[in-house]
């Protein structure tokens, strides 16, 4: 199964990624680029994007990039650093890049930038690569 078909299949059942209004710009094995806008329902009490938004965007990009090879993968460890706030109306570009992939473990980095090309967050994720194929 091709990378785009895998991600489309994942998105069909991923209500949360759909709610995030993710637009998939590019998908290849080990790489993913997404885009979305910060909506009013995504902000916290400080009127900035809730940290869970950048975390969730990063987690989705990680899942898409890792699974695009055709083997089913799940995250086993993640961390995030929020470097600057995102505000309502900000356009967020999410880029996931594979750092290393072995037989059963993959390591990825996700950067989220705003429309001014400023880094909003840095995310690192480790996935378990199963022997189950996407079909």
What is the topology?
Elements: H1 3-13, H2 15-19, E1 23-28, E2 31-37, H3 51-67, E3 71-82, E4 91-101, E5 105-113, E6 119-133
CATH homology superfamily name: Hotdog Thioesterase
Helices, by number, come to 3
What's the CATH class, please?
Answer: Alpha Beta
Work out the count of structural domains.
Answer: 1
Total strand segments: 6
Provide the spatial order of strands within the biggest beta sheet: 1-2-4-5-6-3
The assigned structural class equals alpha+beta
Distance between the termini: 6 Å
Largest beta sheet, briefly? 6 strands, antiparallel
Instruction: Indicate the mean pLDDT.
Output: 97
Strand content: 35-45%
Supply database-style keywords:
single chain; 135 residues; alpha+beta; Thiol Ester Dehydrase, Chain A; six-stranded antiparallel β-sheet; 3 helices
Give an overview in words.
Keywords: Hydrolase. This is Hotdog fold thioesterase. Residues 46-118 form the Thioesterase domain. It comes from Brumimicrobium aurantiacum. GO terms for molecular function: acyl-CoA hydrolase activity. The chain has 135 residues and is α+β, with helices and mostly antiparallel strands. It has a single domain (3-133), classed as Thiol Ester Dehydrase, Chain A (Roll), CATH 3.10.129. Helix content is 24%, strand content 44%. The protein contains 3 helices and 6 strands. The chain has a 6-stranded antiparallel β-sheet. It starts with a helix and ends with a strand. The model has no long low-confidence stretch (mean pLDDT 97).
């Amino acid at each position: 199964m091709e990378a785009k078909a895998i991600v489309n299949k994942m998105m069909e059942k991923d209500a949360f990624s759909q709610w995030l209004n993710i637009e998939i710009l590019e998908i290849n094995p080990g790489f993913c680029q997404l885009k979305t806008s910060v909506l009013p329902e995504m902000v916290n009490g400080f009127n900035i994007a809730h940290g869970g938004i950048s975390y969730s965007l990063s987690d989705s990009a990680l899942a898409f990039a890792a699974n695009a090879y055709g083997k089913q993968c799940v995250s086993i460890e993640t961390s995030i650093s929020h470097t600057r706030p995102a505000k309502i109306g900000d356009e967020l570009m999410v880029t996931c890049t594979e750092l290393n992939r072995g037989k059963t473990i993959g390591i990825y980095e996700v950067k989220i930038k705003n429309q001014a090309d400023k880094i909003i967050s840095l995310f690192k994720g480790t996935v378990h690569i199963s022997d189950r194929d996407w079909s």
